[in-house]
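Entry 12.
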Amino acid sequence: MEIVRINNKIEYKRIKSLYLEAFPKVERAPFLLLKRRAKKNKADVLNFVDNGEWLGFAYVISDEYLAYLFYFAIDSRFRGKGYGSEAIRRIMDYYKEKKLFLALEDWRDASDNPDQRNRRHMFYKKNGLKVLPYRLKEAGMIYAMMGACERIEPNEYKAMINGWLGWPLKLMDDMKIIIE
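Predicted 3D structure (tokens):
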């Protein structure tokens, strides 16, 4: 498997289709915003390819210190075959000089999809990510955090996310780390 950075219309069409299928509407940022930020080099859009076959993508917001795995999805045709684990290992290696983290629905909270949440948590745990002692507030939702690091300072996250959002969005956002 290889990671291929992209920035063209054909790839974005395929990524958008998987993005809409894999993430609930309440968790999706406007796709146009994601695309514009990537075109301004404020995020990386990574494709996972194996023997010419497109497997999925990752959208990573990063700065000098942090790498936030904002979206990660493997095409449904390839799930359960080890590609997701391989992709996570590749992402961890790709960003090994940075504190890599992600946000996910909290498996400890009551929900209508507890099995799915627990499977997702166990997937990331099995692949070397640890539960971080924070929650993350984004778009009115509260998420658990996992990472390939021990600690992320709230001001580090705020600086990174404000750099990604840019002006004037950073003035309107309420995205922040909540220390438990």
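Annotation: The chain has a mean pLDDT of 92. The domain at 2-179 is CATH 3.40.630.30 (Aminopeptidase).
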